[in-house]
Amino acid sequence: MIELVFATGNSYKIKEVYEILGDSFQIKGLKDIGCTEEIPETQGTIQGNAIQKAQYVFDHYGGLNCFSEDTGLEVYAINNEPGVDTAYYAGPQRDANDNMNLLLQKLADKDDRKARFRTVIALILNGNLHTFEGIVEGEISLEKKGNGGFGYDPIFIPEGYEQSFGELPSSVKNEISHRGRAVAKLVDFLRAI
Ligand code: IMP
Known about the structure:
By secondary structure, this protein is an alpha/beta fold. Helices cover 30% and strands 25% of the residues.
């Protein structure tokens, strides 16, 4: 059985990936390998940060097979903001409501509200780096709608839908979302080895 460390402290994300991968892989979280320190994310890009987190685990924890993910919301009319600052757009407290309010304020006079979520997964397997990207295109709504999901879900309407991620059932979101698509690529790769 292949053992993989998922470089995240978010047990929900670990469970999600474990359920998709099934029993042929054992997924461990950071706590399981005794990693409690904050892993640096200083590369200034989504891809760079994803690689940095996986590389950190590989370098500091004995060359373990591992993967990490990083996600950003990119709004075209404002130079792809918040991008790499998505989690703490409105400040270090990482408050989802403050982040959404700031974004709605910045788009108040914009007609073009198109945006995308982008996830990059970085996998280091047997010392080799592989990356997988997942994207969902959509637009930022005029106001918050629904209270499902997390982060910016109430103001993101995926292309082809009228409801926000906050209103859509999680099964629909997971199928079409940036993270769902990136995880699907990771799973295809791992199943083929
Ligand atoms: P992370 O890298 O997956 O932790 O995501 C960084 C930030 O992006 C989070 O703090 C959220 O604000 C936002 N984010 C990531 N994924 C989603 C999502 O699926 N819906 C809404 N917001 C998200």
